Structures are given as structure tokens and as C-alpha cells.
Amino acid sequence: MYQYDPYDQAMVDARVEEFRDQARRRLEGKLTEDQFKPLRLMNGLYLQLHAYMLRVAIPYGTLNSRQMAALGDIADKYDRGYGHFTTRQNIQYNWIKLEDAADILADLAKVEMHAIQTSGNCIRNISSDHFAGATYDEIIDPRPYAELMRQWSSFHPEFTYLPRKFKICVIASDRDRAAMRLHDIGVQIVKNEADEVGARFFVGGGMGRTPMVAPMIRDFVPLDQLITYAEACLRVYNRYGRRDNKYKARIKILVHELGKEEYTRQVEEEFAHLLDQGVEPPLEELARIAEHFSDPTFEDGAKTVDRSDPDFVLWVDRNTHRHKHDSYVSAVISLKPVGGIPGDATGEQIRIMARLAKQYSFDELRIMHTQNVVLPHVKIADLHALWTELDAADLGAPNMDTIEDMIACPGLDYCALANARSLPLAQRISERFDASGKTEKLGELKLKISGCINACGHHHAGHIGILGVDKKGVENYQLSLGGSEAEDVSLAKITGPGFTEDGVIEAVEKVTDVYLERKEGEERFLDTYRRIGMEPFKEALYG
Amino acid sequence: MKILTGNDLKSGDVIWWTGESWSRHVDDAVDVGEHGPEILAAEEAARRVNVPYIIDATREEDGGVRPAHIKDRVRALGPTVRPDLTLKPKDPEALDWVI
């Protein structure tokens, strides 16, 4: 994986000292909160319900065991013994003291990490496929291009004050495991008919209060023009994005209002203008980056596991993903124990995952946008030993892509923007379905819960989505069905009037019952919904 | 009643105006009547509170103070999903108070 060069390190170290000075001046009263707020946000430091919250960037969700261990140490040293992995493949700490913040950034810098551009109207952490570089079904490893985009977008002087925040995703597979088309820019690396590798550009997707699926504006951009084309997309947005209205400032609104054709025309015009301006980084820089992502030395070994232990087999069948080498798999560590808080891990659990990555996965981990952790390269022969250690650390839940593997934002338990709590719902739903034994029967069922319209819990993209709203000071929950953030992307539709906390849990049970009664063959919940439509579900809920 | 709340500048802790200083316990909050804005301005200028604001609340029969909105009740207690991290970790009824 990528390692900082002296330039990267100097840049991050300088930012730590700059922030240390800013925090000192705030504590001494030389800066007001209005003056300090944009400075702290540029370093990922929010003020939430109970304390300051620090969001740390994990570029395209990739990190090594030393970095992971440092994240666990920060949880214990500066927070209350845990961290929260997010739907942007980042980690957040909920109980940070302002007087500690610069020291935390300094600790992060020692392991080549930072919190820069995890807030503010700039290009945020680049996200990617959590199985990148390991999976059997990708064209190339997209991470060198994600890293190139990270370097291009870091402190980009023209894009530091965009109309609104900006999220980019890079994948290289027809299987979309990163919600690519729900980003401001989604880049899919593809091959054309001449077998050349290039990139499809999808622009103007997103969730939030106005969810939209990004349309494709270019089916093939040569990879040696990738940055130039992205720059053209950003320039048109930066020029015409709605700065007058925060709620209409995302690029999806611009693309929608201009129309895909007109936006594309302007991007192409800008692209033509930029092509000879020297925007594209030299190919030597890409080659230097790519060297960091070369494959480890894989060894031939066992191709199957001993299936005599049913608990182990259940975990293998649910929580491993086919690798490009037939003696390896990618192993998913669930952060969704029954009744647990999705995405939370203790400092000790984080260090255990770091140690296991070093022992079993060539020192590498990935954070999934579904708030789990991946060991990307695990020998099939090592799986039982790995699972045994995970299970002992309460990290062995066999529930990937089931109803118990739900995404949930921090909600009103932590977030200043939230209208309702999402975490208690997640806990109660996982307990209920685990106790009833229905999880297995339901198969793949993606449940996503957001505590407000900003949709950090991706409820628009849930096979079942739940949105918490404030109804005259009381929590209320809207249910929606039929969303997907995968390659069959779609936006969920609201079923009807909302429910109380107890009521929405009953409602989830009812819609899953409709599915079990009406499913045909191997249909997933989403397939059955798409075949029979909303009415049978509405009848069960409101009839 | 009108009460004042905000966050401690250094720690970020949720704090409540007691009439003389700031407390981490909502039950210490006092009714400021119409004087909220001038108290907040003075306290914020002195860096004794960060991002303060005025909220509605009620005095309960047991003398406790209950903020009108659930968001401020969550702030007053702590995250409902982590009773161990709230101000009343051993009180099983504390979470009911939030709802």
C-alpha cells in the first residue's frame, strides 16, 4: 500500500503544527468560535452533542496494521475506549477534548494519517471497493488511481472552497460494492472494445435530501487523462454550483438543473481547454504510486476448508469473498454483533484486528462503507485459526449482507444534526431477527438507517430503509423499500405514513414476512419487491 | 422555564448555567427568565462556554430539570445506547427520562 514520500510527510506535519497554533489561540481567546470553526472543520474536528468529534481519513479505506493499531491506541488514550467506523470508510472518535486535538493529529501523522479534508466544502476522502486489489472480478486494482486522485485533491487551491462538499469513488469492477453511482463523481475503470483500459465517469449522484443516481457523462476517458477530466468536471461545478442555497449546492442539483447533456457539453469544452495545460500528473508519478500497490507474494495452498464445524462453515460461507488467487479469500470482520452498535469497535478490538492483519493478511486491512473491516488476503488454510481468534474477541458474527449487517448512522445519540436515534433501532432489529432465526431465511437483505434527511445511513439505498424524523418533538420513522447501492442501483420509495420506534420494528418484520410468503426461487428481498411492487407490502403495513 | 446550555470550550462537555457558573448536571440549571441573551454574551466572551443557547425546560416534581426537546435530554444524559457513558450509568430509569 502507499507510503508517504518526504513531501507528503512534510505537508501533514506542517498542518499539525498549524492546527496546534490555531487551537492554542482559540483556547487563549485570541480567536472566536466563528473564526475558529472553519479552521477546526478543515481538520475534521466537529462539535457534536456531547463533545468534540474527530473524523480521521482512511484513504480509499486501506490501512496497514501499524496504522490500525494507532487508531486503537488513540481510542484508549484520548477517547473513551472505542471508535466508530463510518459509511465513508473513515473512523470517528466521539469524546475528544480540544486541548488534546493537536496531539492526536501528531500521533496520526507519525503513522502517515490525518484528518484533513474530512469536513468542509472540499473534496473529501476518496472511496473505493473494499476488495480492491484482491477480488477475482476486477479489471485492475483501482487504488493507484484513487491515490493519484487523493494527491491531486489534497489542498487543491481551486477546490478548497467549493459550493458544497464533494465525494469521489473509484472502482474497477462491474460489481459495485462502493455505492459508486451515489457519489458526486463515480469513476468506473473499464476496458473498451480495443481492450484498452480507461474510465467511465458518472457525475451528479448522491443521497441526502435530494437523492439522485449519477448519470454517465463519458463512457471512456483514457487513464492518462483521468485527472484532467475530473478537473474539468469540478471546474464547471465550481463555476456554476448554487452557492446561494446550501440545500441546492451539491453537483447533483447542477447536473439536474442544467441537464446531463448541457453539463456534459460544458465539461467537454473545459476538458478540451485543459488538455494542453499540463494538469495531468506525469506518468512517472503514477508509476511510482502503482509500485506501492503491487501484489504480495501469494503461495499455493489449500483451496477448501474443513466443513466439520458448522459455526465456522457458516462464517466462511457468509463472511468471505472470492480472491483472485485460488488459495486465498478476503475475510470480512463484522462490526455488527447481535445487539451491538454498527461500526463501533473498542481500542482493544482495533488492535486485535491490526495484529491479525499482520499475521494473516500481509499487514493490510480495509474499512468497508458498510462499517465492517476486511482482511483482504487470507490463506484459506489459515481461516479456521483466524475465525477462532475473531470469535474470541466478539468479532466473529457471521452476518455479512444479512438484515443484521445493517448500516446505521450515529443518529441522535451523538449527532448534532440528527432528528431521531438510529442506533437503538439497529440494536433491537438485530436482536429480534437473531432470536427469531429469520436472518438465515431472509438471505441478502440490506437494511439502512439514517437519523436525519442527510442520509449518512444510506437509507435511500436500502432494500429496506428507515429514516428518523422529528414529529413535533417525538421521534418518528419513515419506512422505504426497494433501494440498492450496488450495480443494480435504485432509490427506495417511502411506504406511507411513519411509525413509532416500536412500530417501525414491527413494520420491518411485516415486510420481511411478505417477502418470505411471496418469494420465488432464489429471489432476494429486492428481487421480490421489484417483481410484485409496493402494494402487497403497503397492504401488510396499513391494510 | 428558560435555561442556558452550551459546551465547555476545552473539553467539549455539555454544561448548564447555574446562576453563578456552569455545571455538567442539568438538574443544577436555573430559570434565567428574560436574561438569557446577556448572560450568554458575557459568558461566551469570557470563554467559559462554547456555542451557548437558550432552551425551554420544565421543573419536575422531584426538583429535577427536564429540557423540552429530546435532543437536549440526550445531551443532558449522554448516549442512550451506552448507559455506561451517561451521567447516570447505574439508573435503569434514566433512559426512560430521555424518551
Would you mind describing this structure in some detail?
- The complex is a heterodimer of chains A (543) and B (99).
- With 543 residues, chain A is α+β, with helices and mostly antiparallel strands.
- Chain A is built from 17 helices and 20 strands.
- In chain A, the strands form 4 sheets. In chain A, strands 1-2-5-4-13 form a 5-stranded antiparallel sheet. A 5-stranded antiparallel sheet of chain A has the order 3-14-15-12-11. In chain A, strands 6-7-8-9-10 form a 5-stranded mixed sheet.
- The longest helix of chain A is centred in the first third of the chain and has 22 residues, at 6-27.
- Chain B has helices at residues 36-45, 70-77, 94-98; strands at 2-7, 14-17, 22-23, 50-59, 65-67.
- The mean pLDDT of chain B is 95.
- Classes of the chains: A alpha+beta (543), B alpha+beta (99).
- Chains A and B meet through strand 5 and helix 13 of A and helix 2 of B.
Key structural traits:
heterodimer; A: 543 residues; alpha+beta; five-stranded antiparallel beta sheet; 17 helices; 20 strands; 37% helix; globular; B: 99 residues; 5 strands; 23% helix
